[in-house]
Amino acid sequence: MKKILILASILSLSLSAVEIKVGVVLPLSGSTAAYGQSALEGIKLAHFMQPTLSNGDKVSLVVIDTKGDKLESSSGASRLVSQDKVIGLIGEMVTANTLQVMRVAEDSKIPLIAPAATGDRLLEKKSYSSRVCFMDSFQGSSLAKYIFSKLHYKSVVIVVDQSTDYSLGLAKAFEKEFQAKGGQILRTLRINSGDKDFKAIVTQIKSLNPEFIFLPLYYNEASLFARQAKLGGLNIPMGSADGVADQTFINLSGDASEGYIFTDSFDYNNPSTKLSKDFIAAYEKVKSTKELPAFSAMGADAYFVMLNAMNACIDNLTSKCVNEKIHQTKNFEGVSGIISIDQSGNAIRSVVIKEIKNQKQSYKDTINP
Length: 369
Hints:
- By secondary structure, the protein is α/β, with parallel strands linked by helices.
- The protein is 44% helix and 20% strand.
- It starts with a helix and ends with a strand.
- The relative contact order is 0.13.
């Protein structure tokens, strides 16, 4: 009789447990696959650590590969909403593709959290979209302050990708802050995504002889530039934003990355919260290393913030309630640090400055908002 009661109790619990679906929209193949794969690792580990809501309801991840394509981002998000009936979305990684996912989220009134899309104007006139990362204006101006005040560089050449809003926004913010400090922008040189030959630009920069080169580029172009600069005898310090905050950049650029400066959102050697320490420990068990990539931390934070909002809506679990609670996030102790999200969906958080030494990311400084 006792066994029957136990079995009945287990059956009752299994029948009462509800499956809650969260859609994950990331570039797992294509030119930005390194970002998406890294973020997905973080999301999956976060889900492993917290697979249920506070009432026992099961959270399931439904993952879509956007292939780094705008149309795939839009159609994938639409399928997650219409077919899989997800309660929320996480994704994409780059600003242009995230905008496509946001259009679906806004039209469907499904909350979206972007792990790493940093474009300043991304959230204008949006009600159901948010992010856990900083904005380009903050990381661009933070790097400008750092190299002027801490490294004492007074002249800069900027190499900007004129085909991406990410690069243009960073260049604008950097230039504004650097000039306000008294620095000089000697020249802004333009490239396009997919360019592979930077020899002519390297020659131009050598003739200008700046003290620093700012490259607000993604890892493919930045790594090619770094290698060609080294081969061309251009031994001027250079740096980027979080577009190179991945081991892939170091692997592609090799020893040409030595001394490279960049902004990032997280440093695994400086965990600032209990969740951060616990997450790094869990990552080390799985990967046999504590070298947690920043994009993995950001993916995890997107999941944890979403879960935190869902738990706050446990008695009224609707997309509307979850969205409201996401936008009320205050001092959330995430994997990448303390995160607050305002009513516009923008995150208020710190930025980390790093340098590449001996093929590893090395912490330099933290700049708070």
